[in-house]
Design a protein that fits this description.
This protein is α/β, with parallel strands linked by helices. Helices cover 28% and strands 17% of the residues. β5, α4 and β6 form a beta-alpha-beta unit. The longest helix has 25 residues. The radius of gyration is 23 Å and the shape is globular.
């Protein structure tokens, strides 16, 4: 059954965070001659295969939002030919902004979906992810909007399969998958050794995803995985270090514009070497990661003090008190009494 929260996703994503003005408008991101990205609102998906590859001659990595369906299908038909279906749909992980229309696309194309074994609980309805952490700071995307993001798992049933244990990637010959946990327990990235192309998911990103203004501007920089949805910073650090060791030529990330060349490698080297500096100063999972296994979430640390509800409550109480005092002065004929304008006879 589809997660009903996903159907109202447009209401949860701030308009300011949509660079193209609408979640239905896609921007093409050229990565390599045979890898095309689509920027869909605040997240990217990737079509992997040479233009004109035809039916079953290509693969799709991630699926964006529920509203991304039409844009993905249209882009696939333009690139690979009318009616062209992928050999496989690959998910870097199962967060709501990467699996939004996966079930609909898998049924339309009769295509298998692949994830890491440790990601299966979250795409078969068995477990929710650890809850997001709005206390990590960094901007309004984290502090405010992450509270409203869908948290329940989807259920792909028999359509979803575990990635091959030998590291190969179905539908993407010449590529291998790399386990990059931290952002989620079963997060994976995809790497092609022949040209050092990396499709990284959210193991690291190229925009400060916690900040609504940064997302709107899409200013490029190598940045940590989105902090509000990262429950294991020790694993996230190891994953970044492993990816940096690959010295990729181009990195196609789940959020932000793809980066390449020396700017990518130097930024990734700094993130890898100084990762502790990029970990939030406070947060629910900063010192105590969530514990997970093949069945899903085992335990999570208790929430840390969240000042925002108290701040909002204080502002609300102050506003109500001010309104009451103005009303009281008005009734007594005080200085705040509204002026009466009478028509001249």
């Amino acid at each position: 059954m589809e997660n009903p929260n996903l159907q109202n996703l447009e209401k949860t994503v701030p308009r300011a965070a949509m660079p193209q003005g609408s979640p239905r408008e896609a921007r093409s991101l050229e990565v390599t001659p045979d890898v095309q990205g689509l920027l869909l609102a605040i997240v990217n998906v990737y079509l992997v295969g040479p233009p004109g590859a035809g039916d079953r001659g290509w693969a799709l990595v991630d699926t964006g939002f529920p509203t991304s369906h039409d844009e993905i299908v249209s882009a696939a038909e333009r690139r690979f030919g009318p009616g062209s279906r992928p050999a496989a749909i690959l998910l870097t992980h199962g967060h709501f902004d990467h699996v939004g229309c996966v079930k609909r696309l898998a049924e339309l194309w009769d295509a298998p979906v692949y994830v890491h074994t440790l990601e299966l609980p979250y795409v078969t309805g068995r477990s929710s992810y650890p809850p997001p952490d709005p206390t990590v700071g960094g901007g309004t995307m984290a502090t405010l909007f992450s509270r409203t993001f869908p948290k329940k798992p989807i259920d792909l049933g028999s359509r979803v399969k575990a990635l091959p244990a030998d590291g190969s990637v179905p539908g993407m010959p010449g590529w291998r998958w790399i386990a990059t946990p931290g952002h989620t327990p079963g997060h994976v990235s995809f790497f092609r050794d022949s040209d050092r192309t990396l499709v990284v998911g959210d193991a690291f990103v190229t925009v400060r995803q916690e900040s609504t203004s940064a997302v709107f501007r899409q200013k490029q920089e190598i940045w940590r995985p989105p902090a509000y949805f990262t429950p294991d910073w020790v694993s996230a650090k190891r994953s970044v270090q492993e990816l940096a060791a690959l010295e990729p030529e181009v990195a196609a990330t789940g959020h932000g514009i793809p980066m390449r060349g020396e700017a990518l490698r130097s930024g990734l080297e700094i993130l890898s070497r100084e990762f502790d500096r990029f970990i939030p100063a406070r947060g629910r999972y900063v010192n105590h990661p969530a514990r997970t296994d093949e069945s899903g979430v085992v335990s999570i640390p208790p929430p840390v003090r969240d000042p925002l509800p108290m701040v909002l409550a204080g502002l609300g109480a102050t506003a109500l008190l001010g309104a009451a005092m103005r009303g009281r002065r008005n009734r007594r004929g005080g200085t705040d009494r509204p002026l009466e304008f009478r028509p001249r006879r």
